[in-house]
Amino acid sequence: MEFLKTRNILLIVEGEVTEINVFDKIGDLFFDKTTKLDFFAYKSNIYSLYQKIKEYKEYTTTIDILKEIATDKKSKKLLNKKFSEIYLIFDFDPQEPAYSDKKIIELVNFFNDEIEFGKLYINYPMMESFRDHTNFNIKDFLNRKVKIDGLTSEIYKSYITQNGYKRNIANMTIRHFKLLSKMNIIKSNFIINNSKTMPEYSNFEHISNQLNILMKQIEIKNSTNSIFVLNTCMMFIIDYFGQRYYGDLLKSKV
Description:
Elements: E1 7-13, H1 18-30, E2 35-41, H2 46-55, H3 62-69, H4 73-78, E3 85-91, H5 101-110, E4 112-113, E5 118-124, H6 138-142, E6 145-147, H7 153-163, H8 174-193, H9 204-208, H10 210-224, E7 226-228, E8 230-231, H11 236-251
Helix pairs in contact: 5-10, 8-11
């Protein structure tokens, strides 16, 4: 990816706390002062956004839609900035009444380019999945699933609070995020190809493709009533920094 002298990156996030804390830390660790991460907290699920897109379909950009949604002065001012890329960070949330396979497929197809409408990262079942591991144990993580029956955000978040990785986000290091990136790439390869290895960079685009991941997760959901735990927004760092960063991940141990 070519870098401009200055760049503003817009992150449209579902929640006001966890997503912003995680990406603030990523910004501090990985980006220099010429790159700024800005956040628009949507404060609702992806299926609510789907409905808004349908309502405002005459608008040609994601920023236009957000300007119609924004109610506070701070958000309206933010959306007047020029952004080089747009990313969306949302939960899969199959338990939501508004969920449908058709809607989520449509959304992933629509938000598939960070330069145009924005690139969507779906986390399974939700953002807190970045903590759903035992001290970065990849063998344990590969087989982690959640059942759809009875799943709620409150139940999953409570489970993570009790059983998930405990380190405070503020104390996480580059090493921690590298481990998370690598774990989730290997997990994605396992979901898509039933392989427990990290693929070469030439295969990364296929393994990290949000539609490829989604279609497999839908298939698993519909046949087993469960989905694999996966945090795809940890692939954001790889998407952004490319082959050199990926090479570092290949060398690291997990």
